[in-house]
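Subject: Sanity check before I submit

Could someone independently write out the structure tokens for this chain? I want to compare against mine line by line before I put it in a report. The sequence has 662 residues.
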Amino acid sequence: MRSPVLPLTWHIVRSSGRRGLQSRLLAAGAATVGTFVLLVMVAAALGSGARADRTAWRTPEPAKHGTAVQALATTYVRHEPVTVVSVAQLPGRRGTPAPPGLTSFPGKGEVYVSPALAALLHKLPANQLADRFPKVPSYGTIGAAGLASPDELVAVVGRAPTDPAVSEAAEGSTVSDIDQAARAEISGFSGTHASLFTAYDQQTALVGVALLVMPVVVLAAASGRLGAARREQQLAALRLAGATPRQIIGMTALETAALGAAGALTGAALYAGLLPLLAEIPYGIGGWYVSQLWVGLPWLVTVVVAVTGVITLSAVSMLRQVATSPLGVAQQADPRRTRIIRLVLFVAVLLYVWSSTGGGQLSTRQVVGLLLLFYGAFWLFGPWVVDRLGRLVGRFARGPATLLAGRRLSDDPRGAWRTVSGLVLAGFAAGFFAVSMVGMDGSAHRDQVAVAGAHASQVRTLLRDAGVTATVDTVGEDDWDGLLSGTPGVIAHISGDGRARLDTAVTALTAANPARPPLTQDYVTAGDRTGIGRFAEVSTATLALSFLVATTSAGLTAAAGVLDRRRIYGLLRLAGTPLKVLDRARVRETVIPLVALAGGTTAIGVYLSYRLNRAVGASINVTGVLELAVCVAVGALAMFAAIGGSRPLLRRVTEDAARSAD
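---
Independent answer below. Compare away.
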């Protein structure tokens, strides 16, 4: 016998009218946004790993039977790092493969540069950058295979085996040289140590992904429950007419899966179509190659299926009462209460997180796991708090709007929680990131250029010939606080303002020690600045996307709530309730749990950030409090704007109160 599930589902969809179509379009729109945001974050995490892999060849990998010498050096121009890879073929040895991005091994005197560096060489005067490299008639070009980003500044220089730039002195001797200077005999370019400027990009991006997963899940779950009240009434009637629980579940799963898949596929298509624009968004060392942001078909299918699955499960999970008590659903009786076990689980998770961050280093995997655990616990805890808030508000209400809001909160705490959950969880992300943007002050070495192993007289001559005014001091092994960190050499204090004068001084002093580029404040603070910069960039992107998801979720659920409750609104209007009172009740239904819960999660985010910073030995950024206040204010305004957007819809569904009540 043919199953009636498909024809009944199609009949319900066709007969739902314009209001039902609006709810379904909203659900598909939510799936589109959720899929797009999730794919973008997954692409950033995977692409960061791919970019790091493309920089590993620059750090020499020692070989037992080396055929060439490779040296890594780092210099800075306009505060941006320039990676210089010097190579020299050893005489009497077999040929060495070409570096990635080149067609052949560079010969002596050949210079290859990235397209971005080539543009900068033509833009700046020679005494600020070009004179740091050997003079050549023309520069070769490093292909994309050897670059992590189109904006990266990289040079490959062919040297003689006796050139100081590839001598043992090029290995570096200061703490700052770690990951910025290296030298070894090699037999190829199969290194596995990523560049300092890309090594931690993926780990930082994964933290952002972890913080965004739950808001996206919230949005997907909310989209699955859009039109829940209308669907429950329809299915309860079918259940009373003789439909089995399996048929009811099958009809719901079929409808929501189709809507979720359509929305998720639209989001995936939007992501694929916007890849060229997404590649222009800088992260770390610059923009992306489009291929780096393509997640691949397996990940694309996984995300689409996951979003569709969450939407379907969310809709099906609402049918327990329809299957067991269809008459109660039809009469809209027995509001679903929440249980105290939610509070117990949340407290247990908080205690576990608190103990886990009490001391010792935490890996990126552990941090991501703790964040996901907290999100999951808070997702269960939220409806319980909303339920209790509704009871308190209803008991102490002094006006009709507040009374209606309190009654609605206690009648449907899960529905009210879905409206505010996005911004509540975004508040946690805001609190976590805002105080984690640790600031640092490198002013102690500002306008200084240091050269290891140089003589003061030579430095003065080079600076004078370059037209740079400076005070030159000689430092010894006891100067651990200076740029050279205990290495004997010379430090020049450059006079005058402007980055151009410092770049000119660095270029002029390159000749003072051909084995070691001059050091500046940018060089000695590179490790800290890179980590802080990546964290700040991920935090900005995470906050922006979190508020986007939260605002979308709030707007969709508010609009769907109006459509679901149009019969109730119609009855209230027939009873003489002014439209202003209904609208105020709707707003307070959002404001009350939002203030209570968003404030709590923001405080928890700040506290967890403090614990994690303490675990890794970092300090709290006090100035981030202002940024936090701005983020919360912008998020709240966006939330109210999204809810206010459904006010015309409320007016339309109550214009003809009699027909709406029917």
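---
OP: Matches mine. For the report I'm noting this point. The two ends are 37 Å apart (CA to CA).
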